[in-house]
Amino acid sequence: MKLVTAIIKPFKLDDVREALSEIGVQGVTVTEVKGFGRQKGHTELYRGAEYVVDFLPKVKVEIAIGDNLLDQVIEAITKAANTGKIGDGKIFVTELEQAIRIRTGETGEEAV
Amino acid sequence: MESNIFHLQYAIDTFYFVICGALVMWMAAGFAMLESGLVRAKNTTEILTKNVALFAIACTMYMVCGYAIMYDGSLFLSGIADVDVDGVLGEFAGREDGFEGGSIYSGASDFFFQVVFVATAMSIVSGAVAERMKLWAFLAFAVVMTGVIYPMEGSWTWGGKDVFGLYNLGDLGFSDFAGSGIVHMAGAAAALAGVLLLGARKGKYGPNGEIRAIPGANMPLAALGTLILWMGWFGFNGGSVLKLGDIASANSVAMVFLNTNAAAAGGAIGALILARLMFGKADLTMLLNGAIAGLVVITAEPSTPSALTATIWGALGGILVVLSIVTLDKLRIDDPVGAISAHGVCGLLGLLLVPVTNSEVTFSGQLIGALTIFVWVFVASLIVWGILKAVMGIRVSEEEEYEGVDLSECGLEAYPEFVSTK
């Protein structure tokens, strides 16, 4: 099983979610985060004093899937979240050791 | 038949006072929302507590002794509910100008209208000392400010008494219609004294002269607060006409409402344009301070200017408040909400503009009055803050300031998350 973590631009969330549904992904977890990569922040002004905002709002999407869906998920997210401009985000893939469905106690591939 | 009309005049002028008093009370909500919008989330509960508590303290202390000091009434308002109807009717009948003479109204309504002004003066202080003052030190100061300091300068102005028996401001041609100086500049003077002894928030000013932004947590609340203040101000200035029940007075009331509104509008526009020119962007917080500055400026003389004049004066206030905020920061005087600029600097401007449209008032009278008010309030406040600082300390510790005064002073977060019961 794999845990796919994608950091995307917030307004791309709906597109990514739809794309994942289309390939059969049943569940996602979404968190509001802030961060930066090569996309620089910007300066703001408050009552005459300048300050720098480095951290930009992003959305983190986490999906637990079976190995068989990995390539499709990566392709779906990449296409849906892409705008071609700096700051589109990244996808990280980590090995998922165990997964348990709390309600039924199912484990492994049946739980994702 | 005549006495029936006297009854009605008494009733309408009393009603007018209590309604205007209620509008001014509503300004407390305005201050609370404005201030809580301009501080950080971790300091929100504390500033709300300060605002509500100071209002309660002001009402109580003014009842205990403040009103008596200011107007020669009795302590604890004893006798204020008494009314001798026949005596009152006799007063009406004996008035020089008949129906158009001075208003006669319930003593209780007079207290109610006056007490909310005291609370307004005190609440100006709470914004300037926000995010780093000990709550109870502030409340202790409020007891003295509302019980003694404000009533003293109020007695020399609206109370008509001699200043320590030396001179009389009314005789010198001083006039402050609804309190640009008596309420607003006075509050700012107390705030300035406090801020000088308190020091700036940690991290506000850098070692090489940098001024760091500490953005407020909730712009909707700040904007809401400003609009609430704007509306409440109609009572503040409107009620200060002191009479509604004849044609001339009613017309004066209408002009006061009109001009108060016009000045706020002018202030908002003036501040917005200057902020755009100076900073390249439209700063909402400057716009809000601008509206308030306009309101403060017109408060000294809202009835005699024309609508256009009132708007221009408001705009002058709006421009001045932006310049003052930036200047105070350069002087490293940290005022998180711009209270000293909006109420102090613009309060002074309001006083000095009165002779322009009111020929019975002199510039020298206004200057002497302004100095009297400022020196008395500033020095008295400095002494009280100084005593509090020596006895109990007025500033929270560095760690408490870092964690947020909501935790150290109130033990209560404004926006709690992940709360669990034991």
**Strand percentage of chain A:** 35-45%
Please state the overall shape of chain B, judged from the principal axes of the Cα atoms. globular
Class from helix and strand fractions of chain A: alpha+beta
Count of strand segments of chain A: 6
Question: Tally the helices of chain B: what do you get?
Answer: 14
**Biggest contact:** A-B, 8 and 16 residues
Helicity of chain B, as a percent range: 55-70%
Largest sheet of chain B: none
Q: What is the highest CATH level, the class of chain A?
A: Alpha Beta
Largest sheet of chain A: 4 strands, antiparallel
* Named CATH architecture of chain A: 2-Layer Sandwich
Estimated structural class of chain B: mainly alpha
Question: Low-confidence parts of chain A lasting 5 or more residues at pLDDT below 50?
Answer: none
Instruction: Report how far the terminal alpha carbons of chain A are from each other.
Output: 8 Å
The helix/strand order of chain A is EHEEEEHE
Number of strands of chain B: 0
Pfam family, one (chain A): P-II
InterPro entries (chain A): N-reg_PII, N-reg_PII-like_a/b, N-reg_PII/ATP_PRibTrfase_C, N-reg_PII_CS, N-reg_PII_urydylation_site
Modified residues (O-UMP-tyrosine) (chain A): 51
Organism (chain A): Marinobacter vinifirmus
Describe the protein's architecture and organization:
The complex is a heterodimer of chains A (112) and B (422). Chain A is of the alpha+beta class and 112 residues long. Chain A has a single domain, classed as Alpha-Beta Plaits. Chain A is 20% helix and 37% strand. Chain A has a four-stranded antiparallel beta sheet with strand order 2-5-1-6, covered by helices on one side. A two-stranded antiparallel ribbon of chain A has the order 3-4. In chain A, strand 3 and strand 4 form a beta hairpin. The mean pLDDT of chain A is 94. With 422 residues, chain B is mainly α. Helix content of chain B is 69%, strand content 0%. The longest helix of chain B is centred in the N-terminal third of the chain and has 37 residues. Chain B starts with a helix and ends in a 12-residue tail after the last helix. The mean pLDDT of chain B is 95. Chains A and B meet through strand 3 and strand 4 of A and helix 10 of B.
